[in-house]
Specification:
Layout lengths: L14 H6 L10 E8 L5 E3 L7 E3 L1 H13 L4 E7 L18 H12 L4 E6 L12 E3 L2 E3 L1 H17 L3 E4 L6 H11 L6 E8 L6 H7 L19 H12 L4 E5 L5 H10 L4 E5 L1 H12 L5 H15 L3 E4 L2 H8 L2
Helix pairs in contact: 4-5, 9-10
This protein binds ligand PBG.
């Protein structure tokens, strides 16, 4: 008999004990479910690179939301798909009060008053250049973009959004948007800043969903280099100082260290975006029978929570909720 005073396996000997010592938990109320909206009626179009994820017209989206809310999901992040014909250099459609996206927010709020609605503040779905900022002579302008973001934010707040998600990594956007909202009486509207958003290959399927890929170049002059960590602290410090209510890291899986870093350094909630490519990888492998998709999904979501994210934006929200509700 070997004499061991420490036998860590004792704390794993039964399901009851394992549950007692479980350090991290995952709840349906941790999820924000990203959803895609398109114009028209009776539309439900599957996103090719995201099996199980659809673009809905408003009527079908409201139906879907009944199911989503019945599962206990309490927050969504709504993204619009605009046809090329509605896009221009200035993303003007983003603050046109009559546009289907803003009207949908109001309609959803009316039907589901308790549901938290988050919106995305960035030019790309509305921009004929497919970039997150105003393009001039091949350059992405920073300060001129802020003016457009201000108008977009105010329009989304007026439509009924609870949380705005500035996602373009322009300098000074959080402070600019906060002031613009406050000056117009929307002091209650929250900002979840995409603080550390990396120039990542994992956004590919999302750009398929929105048909919003950049028409030239890439996003490296505004999104961060995957090589950098200290810079994430600087971005988070600025967003914190400018009034962000929550800080987000995106993508999640290749950046668990960044989630942990922000969690250790800031006393406001940290969110993580489990992005489209991360969803697609697990779906593809599990549809091929190469791994157990359900287990991989739960492991990924738990790891994001363990790293320090309080809430998770994830396309798995519905599927994970079904399992958590069992
Ligand atoms: C728009 C935006 C993107 C995502 C969320 N908001 C794409 C991008 O920056 O190119 C990606 C989300 C995902 O991949 O799931 N600025």
């Amino acid at each position: 008999m070997i004499n061991l005073s420490r036998r860590p396996r004792r704390n794993r000997k039964s399901a009851g004990i394992r549950d007692l010592v479980q350090e991290t938990t995952l709840q349906v109320s941790d999820f924000i479910y990203p959803m895609f909206l398109q114009d028209g009626t009776n539309q439900k179009v599957e996103v090719k690179s995201m099996p199980g994820i659809y673009r809905f017209s408003l009527d079908n989206l409201l139906e879907e939301l009944k199911e989503v809310t019945d599962l206990g999901i309490r927050a969504i992040d709504l993204f619009p798909n605009y046809p090329e014909s509605r896009k221009d250099r200035f993303a003007s459609e983003s603050y046109n009060e009559d546009t289907f996206y803003l009207k949908a927010i109001t309609a959803i709020k009316e039907r589901f008053p308790e549901l938290v609605i988050m919106t995305d503040v960035a030019m790309d779905p509305y921009s004929s250049d497919g970039h997150d900022g105003l393009v001039e002579n091949g350059k992405i302008l920073n300060d001129a973009t802020l003016d457009i973001l201000g108008k977009m934010s105010l329009a989304q707040a007026r439509a009924g959004a609870d949380i705005l998600g500035p996602s373009d990594m322009m300098d000074g956007r959080v402070g600019y948007i906060r002031k613009h909202l406050d000056d117009n009486g929307f002091t209650d509207v929250s900002i979840m800043s995409y603080s550390a958003k990396y120039a990542s290959a994992f956004y590919g399927p999302f750009r398929d969903a929105l048909e919003s890929a950049p028409k030239f170049g890439d996003k490296k002059t505004y999104q961060m280099s995957p090589a950098n960590k200290r810079e994430a602290l600087l971005e988070a410090q600025l967003d914190f100082a400018e009034g962000a209510d929550m800080l987000m890291v995106k993508p999640a899986l290749s950046y668990l260290d960044i989630i942990s870093l922000l969690d250790q350094n800031f006393d406001i909630p940290i969110a993580a975006y489990n992005v489209s490519g991360e969803y697609a990888m697990i779906k593809a492998a599990s549809l091929n029978g190469w791994l157990d998709g359900e287990r991989a999904m739960m492991e990924v979501l738990m790891s994001i929570r363990r790293a320090g994210a309080k809430c998770i934006l994830t396309y798995f929200a519905k599927e994970a909720a079904v399992i958590l509700n069992r």
